[in-house]
């Protein structure tokens, strides 16, 4: 089925080609914006879609698979995710006001990284599958059941909306210390949850 002109114009899907000068700068560990809880978005309008487009450009330029609005200094509950960076036709996921409504009793460990803590990779334990409710880029209520890398990415990005970073969840304190030191980050900016 063909899409109407209006739907085409309203999509947030942008080119995945990395821009030399992405529109929004990504904040790094130590920035206060990363530690502030984000506010709900009351109306999904063109300004929200513009923000999503700019965030996608910044994410693609950094070769990331997920980005949350607080990472670009915007205090709003908006996430963009794209696990398929090399497939131009696959649309990104845009999650507005996301909430995890269920999480599996089973957990797994996975080596995470974050565009706000470049080059730092550490193991984090999280539920293996989650269900999330959210509004999409047209403001429609949606639900999604995710496993694998998508479940991992959704949980990591949702944490950003609460001012939580993946390094706060790392249990291996020795590796955490070493990895942060090696990449020039201050251990005092971690707010350990364990
Ligand atoms: Ni992150």
Characterization of the model:
It is globular and about 55 Å long. The chain is built from four helices and seven strands. It is of the alpha+beta class and 194 residues long. Helix content is 24%, strand content 22%. The chain has a single domain, classed as Peptide deformylase (Peptide Deformylase, Alpha-Beta Complex). Nickel (II) ion binds next to helix 3.
Which structural traits does this protein have?
Peptide Deformylase; 194 residues; five-stranded antiparallel sheet; alpha+beta; 24% helix; binds nickel (II) ion; 4 helices
Give a quick summary of the entry.
Helix content is 24%, strand content 22%. The protein has 194 residues and is an alpha+beta fold.
CATH topology annotation: Peptide Deformylase
Strand line-up across the major sheet:
1-2-3-6-7
Number of domains: 1
For the biggest sheet, the summary is:
5 strands, antiparallel
Number of strands: 7
The CATH H-level superfamily is: Peptide deformylase
Shape-level CATH architecture: Alpha-Beta Complex
* Rounded mean pLDDT score: 94
Strand content: 15-25%
Q: What is the overall silhouette?
A: globular
Total helical elements: 4
The radius of gyration is 17 Å
Poorly predicted regions:
none
Proportion in helices: 10-25%
* N-to-C order of helices and strands: HHEEEEEEEHH
What's the topology here?
Blueprint: H1 5-10, H2 46-61, E1 66-68, E2 78-81, E3 93-103, E4 107-112, E5 122-127, E6 130-135, E7 141-146, H3 148-161, H4 173-182
Antiparallel strand pairs: 1-2, 2-3, 3-6, 4-5, 6-7
């Amino acid at each position: 089925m063909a899409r109407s002109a209006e739907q085409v114009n309203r999509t947030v899907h942008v080119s995945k080609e990395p821009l030399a000068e992405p529109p929004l700068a990504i904040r790094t560990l130590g920035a206060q914006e990363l530690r502030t809880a984000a506010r709900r978005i009351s109306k999904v309008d063109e300004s929200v879609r513009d923000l999503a487009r700019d965030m996608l450009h910044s994410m693609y330029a950094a070769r990331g698979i997920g980005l949350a609005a607080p990472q670009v200094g915007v205090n709003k509950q908006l996430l963009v995710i794209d696990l398929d960076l090399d497939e131009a036709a696959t649309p990104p996921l845009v999650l507005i006001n996301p909430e995890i409504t269920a999480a599996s009793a089973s957990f797994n460990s996975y080596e995470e990284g974050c565009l706000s803590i470049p080059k730092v990779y550490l193991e984090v334990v999280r539920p293996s599958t989650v269900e999330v409710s959210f509004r999409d880029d047209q403001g429609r209520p949606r639900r999604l059941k995710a496993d694998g890398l998508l479940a991992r990415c959704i949980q990591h990005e949702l944490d950003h909306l609460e001012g939580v970073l993946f390094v706060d969840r790392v249990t291996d304190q020795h590796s955490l210390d070493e990895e942060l030191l090696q990449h020039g980050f201050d251990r005092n900016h971690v707010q350990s949850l364990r």
